[in-house]
Amino acid sequence: MKELAKFLIENNITNYAVFLEYCIGNKHYDWFKMATETHTLAIIKLIEGIEKRESN
Length: 56
Prior knowledge:
The protein is an all-alpha fold and 56 residues long. It contains 4 helices and no strands. The protein is globular and about 30 Å long.
């Protein structure tokens, strides 16, 4: 989860769907599983936080 969070922050990922597309397209199936099964809420909240920070 730490590596995934670092990726989201460093790449200013502000859209959950874009992140899922990235996971599929780059064969990050472990991240896809985390985003859709185990850590969904944490990832969505992080993406929302990044988006909010970027809009300020």
